[in-house]
Protein 1
Amino acid sequence: MDTREWALLAFTILGQTAAGLMIVLMIVRAYLAKAGGELADRLTNRPLFLVVPLMALALLASLFHLGSPLNIARAVPNIGYSWLSREVVIAVAFVIFAALYTYMQWRKAGSESLRTAIGWITALLAFAYIYAMSMVYMIVTQPAWNTLATPVTFIVGSLLIGSLGMAAALVMGHAGLKKTETPVVNNVLQGLAISAIVLLGIEFVVLPLYLAYLATQGGAALQSLNMMIGPYGFVFFLRLLTLFVGAGVLAAYLYRNAAVADKEQTLATLAYSAFALALIGEAMGRFIFYATHYRIGL
């Protein structure tokens, strides 16, 4: 891969992490709010404060691909017919709303209902951003990218990273919980662990279907498949193993241990490890995505 594609890898993974975290954060927040707004604020503000810095890093990485910040402004007039322009515009809108929501949560500005509304708008923008990002790669001349697997894996990967990232953030605040709050938070951890396992299952169903599809298309699609299982076969296998251990095995142990009292240290180890492995696995998947594509024609 060249420098521009490494920049895209950083842009997409950082952006997906920020967006996935924002979406899952709002879902978790809605559940925790039933046990008290103070608890929801205390446990979800920490990961919220990471969303804008992650997106800032993502946009910074994108400059190595776009070449100049002015190209972001130039994307606006093409929003009606270009997914790349939509991606850029939605990404900027996502950052603005995320910054606004973070400030409102930090300063307790506005009413609770207004802050919640801004939070959900931000989460919707996060989802739209991931979708637009994936649609950029639906290019007829790039058969390995131009499949339904691209938007599905971008969205599922984002939610997977977001779920395990949220679990890692929750266990950070575990020590300061009151006795009555611990069962509520542990229920959330179990829900996040199940979500990660289900999302991993979707990835593992889509992947063989995707490979089988490439095998039947011949030409550039078959060349991409041969690269995945040939020169990049070890990275491909390592990616699957990393995802399986992180989002499968460790998530299952996270679910099990969240049901047992006084397991704070074990939960922390499991949540941090699962998140790290899932993030590494998704990054390796994106590396393969960029490294193995073949264009039809010149």
Note: Residues 178 and 246 are 29 Å apart (CA to CA).
Protein 2
Amino acid sequence: MTRPLSTVAELVADHQEGNFFRTLTEITIIARRNLLLDLRNPAIIFGATAFPVFLLLVFTASFTKVVMPNGSYADYAQFVLPFNIVQGLLFSVVNTGNALYSDLQSGMDTRLRTMPIARSAVLTGRILSSAGRLLIQVGITTLIGYLLGFRFQTNFLSIISFLILPVVFTLSFGWLAVFIAVKVKSAEAIQAAMIPWILPLTFLSIGYVPKEGFPEWIQGFVEINPVSSAAQALRGLSSGGSVASPVIATLLWSFVLTAVFSTLAIRAYQHRDS
């Protein structure tokens, strides 16, 4: 016989962690709410997309004749765009942490905690909605690259993988931003905690300079750097060549980082006072 629930608090506690399909529905509802808020405020998507586009234009204009003395702007765009997408998305995951922090401080989180939904759905819904925003950024950045001469030289499956893989990869860092948002006491602290990770990962990679261009003592880090694997995978998916090894390495990095940071973030959220 089922024990009657005497208070609203008991009802909420009893339904916090439901079955898989109910939790999936809750994640979808929260993700839809977050994505609609982003779409109703185009400045969020425009601002996040403008940064990688600006870098793409500046680097193409400044370094084409330095990196490729006998090449064209289109040749350099073909080389740098895949890395430019990864770099832009990594900086954009800071917005994921800021958006969650806003919910935590605005009262939205308090309201969600009074509802009989899974605690994990709040954070997973935030990550899922970020995936939609990041995918839009990948599409816009790729279109700008096309105007500069970038072209896909592979098949349809590779093109789809090119669009999805950077989103999967950067969302693993999105979980890190979410974890930091749950733990810190100010929005500014999220960026301050994320940038020291993102800068060395992006600039100590094969994105702008081949591994041989770095001092020997740091080439080992450049080689195992997950951003190097992601950049190499996207170059293969867009221009052809062997892609199996870098794609597998990128997916493995994504899985490991997601497993670690999602566990930390969900545990921190569950133990956080509303």
Note: The first helix runs from residue 8 to 15.
